[in-house]
Automatic annotation (TrEMBL):
Family: Belongs to the flagella basal body rod proteins family.
GO biological processes: bacterial-type flagellum-dependent swarming motility
Subcellular location field: Bacterial flagellum basal body
Boundaries of every Flagellar basal-body/hook protein C-terminal domain copy: 222-266
Keyword S-adenosyl-L-methionine: no
Residues of the Flagellar basal body rod protein N-terminal domain: 7-35
InterPro entries: Flag_bb_rod_N, Flagellar_FlgE/F/G, Flg_bb/hook_C_dom, FlgE/F/G-like, LlgE_F_G-like_D1
Organism: Mobilicoccus pelagius NBRC 104925
Official protein name in the record: Flagellar hook protein FlgE
Coiled coil: none
Length: 268
């Protein structure tokens, strides 16, 4: 009886986690560069109710399988899914997206983070920055900076390798910088730190940085941003499944409570 109650309690807790993760995905359905999370579960350690036995003669080669009692469920992992989201056209020259593998490299102080959210802007000094103020790094590990138009360039554009192309006073095309792209051996090993940013970990491996369109890194597209990869229909289905699982485990717990009351009544 108590094992069933413990299993039901664990089921309620884990289905609440399922709801929390799904709800966060739904909340970020319109967040540029957001990557959906998945809650993954596994059964808890089982208890042996009866061990395996060899049957006695005249069937010496037979066996009786062990009887195992499960003890509930636990969360194995909450893991991101990193497939590419759709592109949204903005026609804003500082909005960029990666078609393929890789992340933009951002820096704040001595900390580097990685993101798929290419909704960037230029500050008063011409430095390319993310929405939270982090600088966007180039392949030379320096911030991408667009010089003051009154100095030399009169316009700029980005090509698919992330090169920032401008024009000097004579109308000649010049390369002002090149956006750095980093890819990882194991995207699922990255640590979420908020603002659609990720941080490298031992599990993700070291970043393999370089220019877009080389070394397995995706190409860069200007005037578009990558939308969230949340499938709203799938998330709403998961929400229904999680709610039913929570309700079913709650029913098991209430049934165990009723049985306990019945046992107490018998003892009286």
């Amino acid at each position: 009886m108590f094992r069933a109650a413990d299993s039901a309690i664990s089921g309620m807790r884990q289905h609440q986690i399922f709801i929390d993760v799904t709800g966060n995905n739904v909340a970020n359905v319109n967040t540029d560069g957001y990557k959906v999370d998945r809650a993954m579960f596994e059964d808890r350690l089982s208890q042996i109710a009866r061990g395996a036995n060899i049957t006695p003669p005249p069937q010496p080669n037979g066996a009786i399988n062990p009887a195992m009692l499960g003890l509930g469920v636990v969360t194995r992992a909450i893991q991101g899914e990193f497939h590419q989201g759709s592109f949204i056209t903005t026609n804003k020259p500082t909005d960029v997206a990666i078609g393929g593998a890789g992340y933009f490299v951002l820096q704040s102080g001595n900390e580097r983070t990685y993101t798929r959210n290419g909704n960037f802007n230029l500050d008063a000094n011409g430095t390319l920055r993310a929405g939270d103020g982090k600088t966007v790094l180039g392949v030379d590990n320096r911030p991408i900076r667009i010089p003051n138009p009154s100095a030399t360039p009169s316009s700029f554009a980005l090509d698919q390798r992330g090169r920032v192309l401008g024009q000097d006073a004579r109308g000649q095309q010049v390369v002002l910088g090149q956006i750095q792209i980093a890819r990882f051996a194991n995207d699922a090993g990255l640590e979420r730190i908020g603002n659609t940013d990720f941080k490298q970990t031992t599990a993700s491996g070291a970043p393999q940085a370089g220019s877009g369109g080389t070394g397995g890194r995706g190409e860069i597209y200007a005037g578009v941003v990558e939308a969230s990869n949340v499938d709203l229909g799938r998330e709403l289905t998961n929400l229904i499944l999680a709610q039913r699982g929570l309700s079913a485990n709650s029913k098991v717990l209430s049934t165990m409570d009723e049985l306990a009351d019945s046992v107490n009544q018998i003892r009286r």
